[in-house]
Amino acid sequence: MDFEKRLERAIERGQHQGDVQAREDAQRKLGEAELKQLHIKYQLELSEQIEDCLRKLADHFPGFRFNTATDERGWGATISRDDLLVEDGRRANSFSRLEMVISPFASVHILELRAKGTIHNKELFRRTRYQMLVEADPESFRQLIDMWVLEYAELYASNA
Fold first, then answer.
1. From what superkingdom does this record's organism come (predicted)?
2. Which structural domain, as residue segments, surrounds residue 99?
3. Is residue 72 a part of any domain in this protein?
4. Counted domains in the chain
5. d(Cα 63, Cα 54) in Å, to the nearest integer?
6. Tens digits of per-residue pLDDT, 29-46?
């Protein structure tokens, strides 16, 4: 085979690879939109679960204030309370809070649940769980939400 024919074939292969790459890029962009929709669906479902669980927890411990969380950190909810403690004539403030959020959609395509629990001014737990969005199992996240709220309730009750 002479050089001219090999050169033409090399050019054809290069053009073919360029076309394949362009199609793959277009599919990725379409996939990006679908992934964003999937993330929004999971975020809505799981943030409702978080809100339900934290409302119930606040009902069992009077004094907690419930707030929904929809900001740059994610969607979810928080419960918090401030207590005034008087010991030996001295006054002290005590702060307790539980925050759980589903992180916003990001280019890494993950579904991430974050929780932070503080009881009487001490951060007692910080949890993060994530799964790749295409492999995400919302039911396992629901179970984690329940488990982490129950864990906080037990810790709060034992430290109250």
1. Bacteria
2. 42-159
3. yes
4. 1
5. 13
6. 657 888 899 999 999 999
